[in-house]
Automatic annotation (TrEMBL):
Its EC number is 2.7.8.5. Coiled coil: none annotated. PANTHER family: CDP-DIACYLGLYCEROL--GLYCEROL-3-PHOSPHATE 3-PHOSPHATIDYLTRANSFERASE 1, CHLOROPLASTIC, CDP-DIACYLGLYCEROL--GLYCEROL-3-PHOSPHATE 3-PHOSPHATIDYLTRANSFERASE-RELATED. It comes from the Bacteria. It catalyses: a CDP-1,2-diacyl-sn-glycerol + sn-glycerol 3-phosphate = a 1,2-diacyl-sn-glycero-3-phospho-(1'-sn-glycero-3'-phosphate) + CMP + H(+). GO terms for biological process: glycerophospholipid biosynthetic process. The gene is pgsA. Belongs to the CDP-alcohol phosphatidyltransferase class-I family. This is CDP-diacylglycerol--glycerol-3-phosphate 3-phosphatidyltransferase. It comes from Candidatus Faeciplasma avium. GO terms for molecular function: CDP-diacylglycerol-glycerol-3-phosphate 3-phosphatidyltransferase activity. It holds the Pfam family CDP-OH_P_transf. Keywords: Lipid biosynthesis, Lipid metabolism, Membrane, Phospholipid biosynthesis, Phospholipid metabolism, Transferase, Transmembrane, Transmembrane helix.
């Protein structure tokens, strides 16, 4: 197994660590620890792709697992936010639907003609924005938990705007994937 694929697997293994710190308050700084774990996991997303392209280590395994690891990390964070009451479930459900739809599309296209759908630029933009949105939400709530004087209503308003922007970007990138790969799907089977 090459280094980029190991970094992707590391990201997957960091997800439960993130969830534990994000959900359960061991210290007043728990949310900031969760932010650090999430940020480190997000950095592995940049590193694995960069190393794979630069060193010629791109594999079908990596093209398949990397976007799934991204989805799992992002969905874990967004579900934590819903559980904590920080964001509405509606934009999160939109994001979830798109992620399952694109994953199903990847499987259908792969099984049909062997093509592996790698993440496109719009999907990468969506992932980057959503990861930044998650980091901002964790930072703001972490500061609130430490007693920094930020109006809680303002934090929730920022959370709402950012998660809805992420939902719109996510839906738009899902439509892009459907349009781009519609010809690769045998609709009669």
């Amino acid at each position: 197994m090459n280094l980029p694929n190991k970094l992707t697997l590391l990201r997957v293994f960091m997800i439960p660590i993130f969830v534990v710190f994000a959900l359960w308050g061991f210290t007043p700084a728990n949310t900031l620890i969760a932010l650090a774990v999430f940020s480190l996991a997000s950095i592995t997303d940049t590193l694995d792709g960069s190393i794979a392209r630069k060193k010629g280590l791109i594999t079908d395994f990596g093209k398949f697992l990397d976007p799934l690891a991204d989805k799992a990390l992002v969905m874990a964070a967004l579900l934590v936010f819903v559980e904590k009451g920080w964001v509405s479930s509606v934009p999160v459900m939109i994001i979830l639907f798109r992620e399952f739809m694109v994953s199903a599309l990847r499987l259908v296209v792969k099984s049909g003609d062997g093509v592996v759908i790698a993440a496109g630029w719009f999907g990468k933009l969506k992932t980057a924005f959503t990861m930044l949105e998650i980091c901002a939400t964790l930072l703001l709530h972490g500061l609130l938990e430490l007693g920094v004087l930020i109006p809680a209503g303002a934090v929730l308003a920022v959370d709402t705007v950012l998660v809805w922007l992420a939902a719109v970007l996510t839906a738009a990138s899902g439509i892009q994937y459907l349009v781009a790969y519609r010809s690769a799907i045998d609709w009669k089977k």
